[in-house]
C-alpha cells in the first residue's frame, strides 16, 4: 500500500463508501476479551510493520475526529483534550530542566 492508496482489504462493492476510521482486515478477538494465556498468541498475530503502525494511528485519529471534532454540535471536549495533551507533551519534554528546581526538605 503506497501513500494515499486504499487498504488492499477494502472492496467498494462489499464495504460501500470508504471510512478512514474502520479497519478492513480480518477481524480478531478484541484485547479486552482475551484470557491471560491467549495474550502471547494474540500479540504474535499483530502486524508489526511501520505501515501497520501508521495505519493504526490514522484510524485512531479519524475515530477521534468523527467522535469529537466533526459532529454537528461540537462541545468543548476536543479543545480541552488538545489543551491537556499539549500540556502533558511540553511537561515531558521540559522535565529534564524542571527537575533541578525541586524543593527538598532537609531534616
Automatic annotation (TrEMBL):
Main location: mitochondrion
Mitochondrion keyword on record: yes
UniProt keyword annotations, A-Z: ATP synthesis, CF(0), Hydrogen ion transport, Ion transport, Membrane, Mitochondrion, Transmembrane, Transmembrane helix, Transport
Assigned GO CC terms: mitochondrial membrane; proton-transporting ATP synthase complex
Compartments where located: Mitochondrion membrane
Transmembrane segments: 74-93
Molecular-function GO terms, alphabetical: proton-transporting ATP synthase activity, rotational mechanism
GO biological processes: proton motive force-driven mitochondrial ATP synthesis
Highest taxon, organism lineage: Eukaryota
Family listed: Belongs to the ATPase F chain family.
UniProt-recorded name of the protein: Putative ATP synthase subunit f, mitochondrial
Naturally occurring in which organism (per UniProt): Papilio machaon
